[in-house]
């Protein structure tokens, strides 16, 4: 018997392949298939790096301030006409943090307030302990996230104006407002926040950190709810350099108000968490690197940070660094404050 030749119809073969692919991606999912083959990042290691690099940036900020080599200059103005400053401390801290991440996690999307056009020699950048003992003790589990879903926001030096002034006219210390901050956002949600105060505790510094749902630093505690009676003041903390008409407007909306002006978004958020202030209020434009770390820390303690419209802030894109909807940060009674402050909604 002559051998039988089987010929496959090209059209029929293509149909079979197409059906197979449709069934495969229906079962396993197209995004899941590709994300499973994408490089992933250990969030616990990223937390360790964030803590170490925020502290490194703080060390550079401290060294330059104490050596009095600030090289202060004006980099721009706010919409309200207030000058925005940059100093050598900002840039040296940026280099320490930004290139530290670039070396430890190549290709990671890192957004910084400052920009250094000349890359540093990576061989001169110290390695990072990605398994920090403090993190191992306080975070019992890990999470692996596709690199494309992560955006790291860094503020190399928050409260530059206070950093360069150092003391108020009355002699009060302004360096208490200075922080270095790192925030890790996953799919736009603030997830890890690190706020380092380099000049606290006789310049030894203090670091507050949190990873939403996983753990936080030993020094982080949510203050008990403060009952505000009819004769008591709402304690509102606002920017000392970009306050605008916020103090007057807050008094009109809330009635009996005690306003505390302060520098640095990180500092103001921590004061709310500590319970010295009932709310942090900002009515003008603010950049996301100023607020992301505090947002993550607040979320860890079930506090809230939103625009004055009550909208959550999206930190997914470094191309959109401006938050133009104002800001309200609280640990308690967030919706009540939103209702009372409705007239403060920023006009766009």
Briefly, what is this?
The chain has eleven helices and 17 strands. By secondary structure, the chain is α+β, with helices and mostly antiparallel strands.
Task: Walk me through the structure.
By secondary structure, the protein is α+β, with helices and mostly antiparallel strands. The chain has 2 domains: 40-216, Fructose-1,6-Bisphosphatase, subunit A, domain 1 (Fructose-1,6-Bisphosphatase, Chain A, domain 1), CATH 3.30.540; 234-344, D-Maltodextrin-Binding Protein, domain 2 (3-Layer(aba) Sandwich), CATH 3.40.190.80. It is 35% helix and 23% strand. The chain has helices at residues 10-28, 30-36, 43-67, 88-104, 133-138, 160-165, 200-203, 246-254, 265-274, 288-300, 334-340; strands spanning 40-42, 73-77, 83-86, 109-112, 144-146, 150-158, 179-186, 189-197, 206-211, 215-216, 234-239, 257-262, 279-282, 286-287, 304-306, 322-323, 327-330. A 6-stranded mixed beta sheet has the order 4-6-7-8-9-10, with helices on both faces. β7 (179-186) and β8 (189-197) form a beta hairpin. α3 runs antiparallel to α4 (88-104) and α9 runs parallel beside α10. The radius of gyration is 24 Å and the shape is globular.
């Amino acid at each position: 018997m002559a051998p039988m030749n089987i010929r496959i119809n090209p059209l029929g073969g293509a149909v079979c392949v197409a059906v197979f692919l449709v069934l495969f991606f229906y079962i396993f999912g197209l995004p899941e298939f590709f994300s499973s083959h994408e490089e992933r990042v250990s969030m616990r290691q990223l937390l360790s790096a964030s803590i170490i690099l925020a502290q490194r940036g703080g060390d550079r900020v401290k060294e330059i301030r104490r050596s009095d080599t600030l090289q202060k200059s004006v980099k721009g103005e706010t919409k309200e006409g207030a000058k925005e400053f940059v100093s050598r401390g900002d840039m040296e801290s940026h280099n320490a943090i930004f290139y530290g991440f670039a070396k430890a996690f190549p290709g990671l999307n890192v957004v910084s307030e400052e920009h250094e056009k000349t890359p540093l020699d990576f061989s001169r950048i110290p390695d990072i302990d990605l398994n920090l003992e403090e993190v191992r003790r306080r975070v019992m589990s890990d999470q692996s996230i596709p690199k494309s879903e992560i955006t790291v926001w860094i503020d190399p030096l928050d409260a530059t104006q206070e950093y360069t002034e150092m003391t108020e006219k009355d002699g009060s210390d302004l360096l208490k407002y200075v922080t270095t901050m790192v925030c890790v956002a996953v799919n736009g949600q603030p997830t890890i926040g690190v706020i380092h105060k380099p000049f606290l505790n006789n310049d030894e510094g203090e670091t507050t950190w949190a990873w939403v749902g996983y753990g936080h630093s030993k020094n982080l505690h949510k203050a008990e709810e403060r009952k505000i009676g009819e004769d008591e003041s709402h304690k509102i903390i606002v920017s000392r350099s970009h306050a605008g008409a916020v103090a007057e407007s807050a008094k009109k909306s809330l009635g009996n108000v005690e306003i505390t002006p302060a520098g640095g978004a990180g500092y103001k958020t921590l004061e709310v968490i500590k319970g010295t202030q009932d709310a942090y209020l900002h009515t003008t434009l603010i950049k996301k690197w100023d607020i992301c770390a505090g947002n993550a820390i607040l979320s860890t303690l079930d506090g809230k940070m939103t625009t004055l419209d009550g909208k959550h802030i999206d930190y997914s894109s470094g191309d959109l660094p401006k938050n133009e909807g104002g800001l309200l940060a609280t640990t308690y009674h967030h919706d009540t404050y939103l209702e009372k402050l409705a007239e403060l909604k920023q006009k766009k």
